[in-house]
Every structure is written in structure tokens, then in C-alpha cells.
Amino acid sequence: MTQKKDALLYVGPATLFLFLVILVPLGFVAWTSLHTGDSWSFAAYTQLFESVLFRRTLWTTFEISILASLGSLLLGYPVALHLARVSARKRAIYMVLVLIPFWTSILVKSFAFTVLLGRSGMVNTFLSWLAGSPVEVPMLFNRLGVMVGMTNYLVPFVVFPVLASLLAIDRSLYQAAEIMGAKPPRIFFRITLPLSLPGVAAAVLSTTVMSMGFFVIPALLGGRQDVMLSNLVDFYTRETLDWNMASAIGVILLGIVTIAALGVDRLQKFGARPRTAAV
Fold first, then answer.
1. How far apart are CA 258 and CA 265, in angstroms?
2. Taking a C-beta distance cutoff of 8 angstroms, is the pair 268, 202 a contact?
3. 118: left (phi over 0), alpha (psi -120 to 50) or beta
4. I need a labelling partner for 268 at 20 to 30 A (CA). Which of 37, 97, 224, 276 fits?
């Protein structure tokens, strides 16, 4: 009984706070999506799924989110692999370097990319110097600019779950493989990669979920073909003032993210278990 009172004392205020700042607004959004005038209706959802704009934006959101997640995986997996092989002391220092992007505002970084990737930016200036003639590679206000901005933000979210899976691999497996004469590529493809897949899957799912809610990066670095669901919510709330449609999009996005988050949670629990494998 005393433990229950202590738990209520410590957890109760935080639970009440989360209820007021998260669940109440979410409930109001769901209520707004279903309440039209003085009646309840699914008209906003019906209108959305009949809208070409919504279907195209939904597809673009999935496409950008998955591509950004896979791009982050390609960049983050080698970093996690290196961190798993260095000493604990060096790993702590390198992890601080991985966390540095978190210390800079996503808005500031997006503006910094406009300086780097613009037609007269540092990248095009360097390419012009290499080519000996003016080079203007379009890297802003298109899909490339969105991918650069999103992968820069998402790489740390790939590094840590993959690193956790790599560190959970039994070290004796590597010793046994080396004793049996296995070369490094064989060790990687038969031990490291298969046993790190739960972390990889969790990283891909979690970064995909986060990508679906991105607003600033597509708005600043993307073009007209790179509008995502969050930008569509902004369009309905500020341009057409249609709160029912904006709320319905929010509820649909929340449902997609919730289903994906449940999958991430299951994978993370599975990836945290110590595992063994035969060479």
C-alpha cells in the first residue's frame, strides 16, 4: 500500500501534466475532425480520401520518410559499427560528436543548408573551382535538399539503436569465427549484420515515424512536389481555414505513427536481448 502511495506521489503530477498537455488537445483534435456544425459526421475523412491532393501528399510523405530513413541508415550504420569496435572511453567521446546536431536548432540548420547548397553556395563554388567553369547544380527547393536536411537530423537516431544491437552481440562469436578461419567480410555478413537487424529495423521504423511529422525542412528546403502531411495541415489551417480537414489529417497521421511506434517498441525489446548465432 505504501509503495502504491509513493508511486502515485511521484508519478501522479507527471501523469496529470501529460494528460492536460497531450491527451486533452489530441481529444479536441479528434472531436473537431468529427464535429461539423451541430452534428457528428465523417464528411471530412470522406472528402480527404476523395481528394487527389491528399492522396498525392500522403504518398509523398511515405516516399520522403522511407527514403530519408534509408539514407540515414546508410550513413549511420558505419558510424555505429565503428563505435562498437572502439574502447568505451573513445566511444563516449565519439558519441558526444554524434549528438552535436541535437544542440543546434533545426531551423538554424535549415538556413545553414541554404548557404551551403544554394546556386552560389559553398558546394557549387567548390564544384566550379574543380571544373574550371561555372557550375550550378540545383540542390535546393527540390527532393535533394529535403533529403540532405532530413538525413542530417536523423542519423543520430539510427546510430544509437544499431549500436545497442551491435554491443549486445556475444564477443565470443567473433573469436570463434576467427579461430575457424573466417575472413572479416564473412564475419560481417554471417554474424554482425544478421544479429544487428533488430536494431536496424527499429532505427528504420523510428526514423520513418519521425520523418512523417517533419514540417520545417520540407517547407524551407523542398519544392512544390515535396509537400508533406504536416505542410498540408498548415495549408488547411492558415490558407483555407478548414479546421475539420486539418484535424482529420492530424488524426490519420497520428494513427499511422501510433501503429508504426508499436512495431518499433516490439523490435527494440527484441533487439535488446543477448543473441548468439552459428558461423
1. 11
2. yes
3. beta
4. 97
**Taking the model in full, what pTM does it have?**
0.83
Tell me how far apart the 2 most distant CA atoms of the chain are, in Å: 78
Superfamily of domain 63-271: MetI-like (1.10.3720.10)
- Judge whether residue 273 has pLDDT over 80: no
Of 246, 269, 21, the C-alpha closest to 161 is 269
Q: What was the pLDDT predicted at 279?
A: 45
Residue 249 has pLDDT above 60, yes or no: yes
pLDDT at 278 > cutoff 50: no
> What dihedral angle (degrees, nearest 10) is formed by the CA atoms of 235, 236, 239, 240?
150
Nearest CA among 60, 80, 78 for reference residue 68: 60
b/e string for 154-183 if b means 16 or more Cβ within 10 A?
bbbbbbbbbbbbbebbeeebbeebeeeebe
* 3-state secondary structure string across 30-60: HHHHHEECCEECCHHHHHHHHCHHHHHHHHH
C-alpha cell, 203: 532505427
* Residue 229 DSSP SS3: helix
Give the integer Cα–Cα distance in Å for 233 and 8. Answer: 38
Quote the CA–CA distance of 29 and 276 in Å, as a whole number.
47
What share of the chain in percent tops pLDDT 90? 33
Helix axes 229-238, 52-85, angle to 10 degrees: 140
